[in-house]
Write a structure and sequence with these properties.
It is a single chain. By secondary structure, this protein is of the alpha/beta class. The chain has 10 helices and 16 strands. Strands 4, 5, 6, 9, 10, 11, 12, 15 and 16 form a 9-stranded mixed beta sheet that branches. The chain has a 3-stranded mixed beta sheet with strand order 1-7-8. Helix 7 crosses helix 10 and helix 8 runs antiparallel to helix 9. The radius of gyration is 19 Å and the shape is globular. Pfam families: Memo. Belongs to the MEMO1 family. This is Protein MEMO1.
């Protein structure tokens, strides 16, 4: 099998090219034509963080990241995602030649993938696990549509480099970030970092609560507990997410790791984000890049904004961009 099938089409997003295009365009139409006082796409915004849930849940939030994404010079697009289908230490690269979407196929840059495999010591993704993995696939239709909007024909599209980033410690994240640094410095490369934020509920084994809505004052609830008498649960979810968002905005990889250590926030793409933050910290040490690579958060959303009972659940979504 040379092409990785679009396995979530028809389930996590519409499998009809016409309907899918209409939905994604409608999402993007809700995003302003200028963000932070700059016309979109943001010039030089080659790096984005975007969610990967079903489009009915996170598609509107993801539109903000994709509308800021500058692909005008892209010859290669890296997609960094976490593994949901098997435990992974280190990183893993695809062995497929193409990724299918309802709009058409995206071609893998196998040469670059091989070079990174040798530098980082990456494994190959098991094909069955990669086919089941949604953290990479959910970005491909959005990416394809943005490439259609940017280039005249599919034969001009940049190739993609899908990578799974495993459960690495901080030092390992810094090492992978250093390996990616030459590619981040090159303006012909763009990066999509795939992550949802707080997964709250018994299903996710994360049910923290703060009576004061403070991420420094968290207790653990149980599914059968009564409704808390203090501030509602959804305020705690927001506070925990805002603390993680502030850490991302700080540009400090260590600050991000410290925040996750403190709150145990279930940011599923914490390792892809950590790798990118480590790389961008190194980027700012390079001549001419001192003021680059800081994330701007452009959208925050949740699957449920009104969680009040321990029996409820919620997943959070964030879109961000960085100019490099």
């Amino acid at each position: 099998m040379a092409t990785r099938p679009a396995g979530k089409a028809g389930a996590w997003y519409n499998g009809s090219p016409t309907r899918l295009k209409r939905q994604l365009e409608e999402f993007m139409e809700t995003v302003p034509d200028s963000i932070d006082g700059v016309q979109v796409p943001i010039p030089g915004a080659r790096i984005v963080i975007a969610p990967h849930a079903g489009y009915d849940y996170s598609g509107a939030c993801a539109a903000w990241a994709y509308k800021t994404l500058d692909l005008s010079r892209a010859k290669r697009v890296f997609v960094l995602g976490p593994s949901h289908t098997y435990y992974l230490e280190g990183c893993a690269a695809t062995t497929f030649k193409k990724y299918a979407t309802p709009f058409g196929d995206l071609t893998i840059d196998q040469e670059t993938a091989q070079k990174l495999k040798e530098v980082i010591g990456m494994d190959n993704m098991p094909k069955d696990n990669e086919i089941e993995e949604h953290s990479l696939e959910m970005h491909m239709p959005y990416l394809y549509l943005r490439l259609q909007q940017t280039f005249d024909s599919p034969d001009q599209f940049p190739k993609i480099v899908p990578l799974l980033i495993g459960s690495n410690n901080g030092d390992a994240e810094k090492a992978v970030g250093r390996a990616l640094l030459p590619y981040i410095k090159d303006p012909d490369n763009a990066f999509i970092v795939s992550s949802d934020f707080c997964h709250w509920g018994s299903h996710f084994r994360y049910m923290v609560y703060s009576p004061t809505s403070s991420p420094s004052n968290l207790i653990k609830l149980q599914k059968g507990d009564p409704k808390p008498t203090g501030r509602p649960i959804h305020e705690t979810i927001r506070a925990v997410d805002e603390a993680a968002i502030d850490a991302v905005k700080s540009g400090s990889h260590d600050a991000f790791l410290d925040n996750l250590q403190q709150t145990r926030n279930t940011v599923c793409g914490r390792h892809p984000i950590g790798v990118m933050m480590a790389a961008l910290e190194l980027l700012r040490e390079e001549p001419g890049f001192n003021d680059k690579g800081l994330f701007s958060i452009v959208q925050y959303d949740r699957s449920d904004h009104s969680v009040e009972l321990p029996s409820q659940s919620s997943v959070s979504y964030v879109s961000a961009y960085a100019v490099a």
